[in-house]
Amino acid sequence: MSRIPFSNVAERRELPPALAISTVIFSLRDDPRTGRKSLWMPLVRRTREPFRNQWALPGGPLGPRDSLIDAAAANLRDTTGLIPRYLEQLYAFGHPDRSPTRRVVSIVYWALVREDDAHDTDTEATSVLRDDPHVAWFRADDLAARQDLAFDHQEIIEYALWRLRNKVEYGSIAYRLLGERFTLAQVREVYEAVLDKELDPANFRRALRSATDIAETDEFLSGGKHRPPRLYRYTGSPTHRLESENIA
């Protein structure tokens, strides 16, 4: 955020609120603790005050000519090198005391990144994440890391997780974290990672096969030791970007 030409804290607090954009980015990654998939998110280390050296969500001030969704997409691209496949407005956070200096209202988006995209060595994302010491991936359930976040970003992440867990129950969110072709077991991995609990494989498979928005393909997953599982595809809405006029 640009320097405010006032040295007096009281004067800064009387200025009109500044607008900012933040983005919560979720991706599925291997969890070394459990050997299963879990939900991860990239955070950035702040290099200036307030909250210098603390981790925060990627974000920045809203430019005078920036659209909200373009600014949010730029946050994801600058942090991970990726173009979002799913981007939705989450909420507006504007408590008067969320910033220790001038009041800042943050319009928050959340994005979903496929695991294959995040690990693709042919994309810019890999080099960005490996070479930038101010960007790192954290488990979404890492409470110790979240307690040390700048501003009210812990509250924002908790709200984003709540929204994600609610939407995965009835929407197409799970497929935004998968490739074009996927097995039923991979879909279950997404649900287990998002809901943070194990699901009965047989019951889940039966329920998923009755769903109307996925279809069998003639392809099978190769490379395993056992009988290769069939691959499926998502047949629902192809929309990758969503933007609401209302902040909700």
The CATH architecture assignment of the largest domain turns out to be: Alpha-Beta Complex
Q: What's the end-to-end separation, in Å?
A: 25 Å
Q: Low-confidence spans: pLDDT under 50, at least 5 residues?
A: 120-128, 239-248
CATH superfamily of the largest domain: Nucleoside Triphosphate Pyrophosphohydrolase
Number of strands: 9
Strand percentage lies at: 25-35%
- The coarse overall form would be elongated
Main β-sheet, in a few words?
7 strands, mixed
Give helix and strand order, one letter per element, not per position: HEEEEHEEHHEHHHHHEE
Mean pLDDT: 84
CATH topology of the largest domain, what is it called?
Nucleoside Triphosphate Pyrophosphohydrolase
What is the helical fraction, as a range of percent? 25-40%
Count of DSSP H/I helices: 9
Number of spatially distinct domains: 2
Q: What structural class should be given to the helix and strand makeup? A: alpha+beta
Please state the CA-atom Rg, rounded to the nearest Å.
20 Å
> What is the CATH class of the largest domain?
Alpha Beta
Domain Nudix hydrolase: 41-158
Organism: Paeniglutamicibacter antarcticus
Protein name: NUDIX domain-containing protein
Domain NrtR DNA-binding winged helix: 175-233
